[in-house]
Write a structure and sequence with these properties.
single chain; about 220 residues; mainly beta; Elongation Factor Tu (Ef-tu), domain 3; 3 domains; six-stranded antiparallel beta barrel; globular
Length: about 220
């Protein structure tokens, strides 16, 4: 688990095809590696990866085909900057929100506008994630815990303050940049919980059990009209 508070901006110093997937070597910059042990989890742009080798200035992690297929990690190249965060401990301040490091989908930056010293970004999420994104709710973008300022369909707006711009890779975002998205865990679990006994039913065909307006009405979250 992570908090979404980025500890360092690292850099990819090697990307090697290995047995059909990818092995990354990542320079950690100011990330404190003194307490890292073999097998520890480190979030790289919001993707939970396992340190299989490390020293005080870098670590090595394998990226599976599953991760490559469902995140933007496969597009990282030598020289790419990445957000880094070590897994939280019981002594960690939870300054952001609970982040699992399991990316739900890849979004795309569709607008960037300077607003005083801040920057406003509009990001388009995959259609199936739109229902989990709420006004003033939490979302993780490339591992950064952020607050949603506005929602319009599958697009949502973020206001990024100078500190976040300076201390994360969000400063590099331009229109067309692909980003890793992780929706709020509570929304995910709430959807599953509201399915009740239907959660145990196998999906038929290409359709899976999802939260419907009827289910919300049955559980008193909305009124039947």
């Amino acid at each position: 688990m992570f908090t979404g508070i980025i500890e360092s901006v690292g850099k990819i110093i090697a990307s090697e095809n290995k047995g059909g997937d990818i092995r990354l070597t990542i320079a950690t910059a100011k990330l404190d590696m003194s307490d890292v042990q073999l097998g520890d989890s480190i979030a790289v742009n919001g993707v939970c990866l396992t340190a299989v080798e490390f020293n005080q200035s870098s670590f090595v992690a394998d990226v599976s085909n599953e991760t490559i297929e469902h995140t933007a990690t496969g597009k990282l190249q030598q020289g790419s900057e990445v957000n880094l965060e070590k897994a939280l401990t019981l002594a960690t301040r939870l300054g952001g929100h609970m982040v699992s490091g399991h990316v739900d989908g890849v979004g795309e930056v569709v607008n960037r506008i300077d607003d005083g010293r801040s920057v406003r970004f509009t990001i388009k999420a995959p259609t199936d994630l739109a229902k989990y994104i709420a006004h003033k709710g939490s979302i993780t973008v490339d591992g950064i815990s952020l607050t949603v300022n506005k929602v319009d369909g599958a697009e949502f707006e973020l206001n990024i303050v100078p500190h976040t711009i300076q201390e994360t890779v969000i400063k590099n975002y331009q229109v067309g940049t692909e980003v890793n998205l992780e929706v709020d865990l509570i929304a995910r679990y709430l959807e599953r919980l509201l399915l009740g006994d239907k959660a145990a039913e196998k999906s038929s065909g290409s359709k899976s059990n999802t939260l419907s307006m009827a289910t919300l009405a049955e559980n008193g979250f909305i009124k039947n009209i």
